[in-house]
Amino acid sequence: GKVVALTGGVGGAKLARGLIECLAPDQLLIVANTGDDFNHLGLSISPDLDSVMYALADLNDPQRGWGLAGESWQAMDALQQLGGADWFKLGDRDIATHLQRSVRLREGASLSQVTRELCAALGIQHRLVPMTNDRVSTMITTEQGELAFQEYFVREQCAPAVSAFRFDGIELAQPLPELMDWLAAPDLEAIIVCPSNPFVSVDPILQLRGVRAAIQAATAPVVAVSPIVGGLAVKGPAAKMMKELNMPATATAVAQWYGELLDGLMIDVVDRELVDTIETKTRVLPTLMSDLESKVDLAQAAIDFARQLD
Ligand code: GDP
Ligand code: FO1
Ligand code: CA
Ligand code: CA
Q1: Helices (H), the chain
Q2: What is the pLDDT of residues 23-56, one digit of tens each?
Q3: Mean pLDDT score across all residues of the chain
Q4: What atom in ligand 1 is closest to the CA of residue 238?
Q5: Are 171 and 209 in contact (CB under 8 A)?
Q6: Atom of ligand 2 nearest to the CA of 87
Q7: Ligand 1, atom 19: nearest CA belongs to which residue?
Q8: Which of 94, 112, 130, 270 is deepest in the core (most CB within 10 A)?
Q9: Phi, psi at 288, each rounded to 5°
């Protein structure tokens, strides 16, 4: 059967890397958030697509969580000397990705087509797609006013307290047709919500017109992996955001946030005492993905969990 995985950048990329070991290319559709996308220095930048793409190709920098391993920064250093904007760091090799994406988009290719070309060039056989080919821009209401996603995330280092999120363009954006086709497929076996940020990575996908309804209407079970482990995010602002939104930073609150959408939640062994507080069915297992083996194990466990829920 088929599997659809919904993902943001770093957390989702790790599970996606595991999933491609468990499923054939025609069995898996990896759908990435594009709410982080923006134009910078004249380039079209798609951070979550690139985080997943580089991870699938084993080219990602695992420490940094974004960009390429073994990167150099000469172009950025030169730009800084020229007085250019240097708050958003583009590595020398990463720039090639943005140049090629920008050129192809300017030629009229869609983001999904460009992503397909980039993935093929990097030897990726599995299918990675943007959630939409249309512009959606995540905007964050903070104590300093509304900030564009990268202003909040990179320039302000996630410091301002958040109170709301808005996905500019979401009403007009058409979800990628391929996503809707897969969600309606009779042989869909699982919808996997990766351990990605629920508010700024997964929610933009769910808020696209018709997507939440199509997920709920799908015959396949929906299983998520909690991105919150022991009251903390493994990386990034998810736990900080939850507290600022007056939610406890727990796997329980993650389950509540997804609500009726979920048929099952996978939580970490350190959170085993939360099982009785979670409304949906749970699986307790190690969820920290470090090496390839832990990614594959968690990916296989997510697929098996969905099969058992069916
Ligand atoms: P971003 O777009 O780069 O912010 O990445 P995602 O939204 O896909 O993932 C961010 C989330 O991944 C954070 O909330 C982390 O807590 C979570 N995360 C990262 N690595 C792991 C891991 O190994 N296990 C689990 N359970 N969560 C993780
Ligand atoms: N994240 C940062 O924290 N600082 C950066 O300078 C930065 C540059 C960057 C360049 C290309 C790219 O694809 C991603 C980049 N990211 C950077 C990550 C990006 O901000 C992501 O949107 C976040 O990691 C959240 O997903
Ligand atoms: Ca992201
Ligand atoms: Ca269902």
Answers
A1: 10-22, 47-56, 74-81, 92-106, 111-121, 149-150, 177-183, 203-206, 211-217, 238-244, 251-258, 292-309
A2: 999 999 999 999 999 999 999 999 999 999 999 9
A3: 97
A4: 14
A5: yes
A6: 6
A7: 11
A8: 130
A9: -85, 120
Q: What is the mean pLDDT of residues 82-102?
A: 97
Residue entry with tokens 């299918």: 127
Distance between CA atoms of 203 and 296, rounded to whole angstroms? 25
- How much distance in Å is there from the Cα of 8 to the middle of ligand 2? 12
48 CB less than 6 Å from ligand 1?
yes
Give CB contacts under 8 A, 24+ apart, made by 265-269. Answer: 265/223, 265/224, 265/225, 265/226, 266/223, 266/224, 266/225, 266/226, 266/298, 266/301, 266/302, 266/305, 267/226, 268/226, 268/229, 268/230
How far away, in angstroms, is 11 Cα from ligand 1 center? Answer: 3
pLDDT band at 196 (very low <50, low <70, confident <90, very high): very high
Q: How far apart are CA 81 and CA 75, in angstroms?
A: 10
Separation of CA 215 and ligand 4 centre (Å): 7
Cβ of 47 below 6 Å from ligand 2: yes
What is the model's pLDDT at position 170? Answer: 98
Percent of the chain with pLDDT strictly greater than 90: 100
Residue 126's pLDDT is 98
Q: Residue 54's Cα: distance from chain center in Å?
A: 13
The C-alpha R_g of the chain, in whole angstroms, comes to: 18
pLDDT at residue 135 tops 90: yes
- Whether 20 has a pLDDT exceeding 90, the answer reads yes
pLDDT band at 310 (very low <50, low <70, confident <90, very high): confident
Helix (H) or strand (E) holding 246: none
- Proximal ligand: closest to the CA of 35: 3
How many residues are listed for the chain in this entry? 310
Q: Is 64 in the pocket of ligand 1 (CB under 6 A)?
A: no
Considering only CA atoms, which residue is closest to atom 21 of ligand 2?
47
The pTM score is 0.98
Q: Determine which residue's CA is closest to atom 2 belonging to ligand 1.
A: 9
